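Researcher: Good morning. I'm working through a list of sequences from a screen, and I'd like to move beyond sequence-only analysis. For each chain I'm collecting a predicted structure so we can compare shapes side by side. This is the next one on the list. No need for commentary yet; just the structure.
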Amino acid sequence: AAAAKEAAKAEAAAAKEAAAQDAAAARARAAEEKVAEAAAKEAAKAEALAAKISAAEQAAADAAAEAASLRDESAAVLRAASTEQNSITAAADAEAEALLTATKSETDAILKEANAKAGAISDAAAAKVSAASSELSEAVSSSNAISRQIASLEGSKAETQAELEKTFFLNFGKKGELKDIIKGLKKDLKEQNKLLEKADKVVEKAQSALEKVQAAAEKEQAKADKIASEAAVAAEKIATAAEKKAVGLTAGAEKQAAKVGKDAEGKSNTLLKAADKADTSAEKSKALAAKLSK
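Model: Good morning. Structure tokens for this chain:
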């Protein structure tokens, strides 16, 4: 009985020891599990932080790239606008220049034709005046020649008459000869005076004809001047209208180009504002990533 009692006691002690060992093992496992759980939590926390840092860095990179892209687009908008502006103004300048060149050709042709007509009228009138002047000069020259001949005959007559008066009154032969000479000179003078009278009439007629031709020439010259003047006025009117149109073309082009520039500037500013906003976002993301990395 005592042995059985001791055996039971030993068995109880062994059971108690086993229970204690099991409890210790359970506690050890619980402690290990707690450590593992804490480590897992730290790992998860670290992984989450790394993910946040990566996301912040990626957001910063994306925002910076977006800002750069927006600035590139802004610059491209301005370049395209500048090209379009140059194209608009160049086209208008070329059109205006072509218009003025064509207008000059037109006005030059108008003036050339008018001046040719006026010149022909003036030349024709001048030719008539020249011909009439020549006729008058010839008539005057002929009259002067007759007058000189009469003067010469008058001189000869006077000399012969003086010689006759000096001749001895009984020298009938010489006196008769001198009288015959005087008689002949008188006859010649009579004929020359008749010729002079006719020549003077020719001079008067030529003078009258010249005056008429000159009066007609003045009218023709006035007609020629009117043709040239009217052509000049017409050419000036055409040139003025063309210049006004050319100014309108260039002014319109400048206005259109200014609008293109203004629109482009507005779009560019909008893009730059968006780029600035993206830069701000990138800086915030960088700051967040740096803060999370500490």
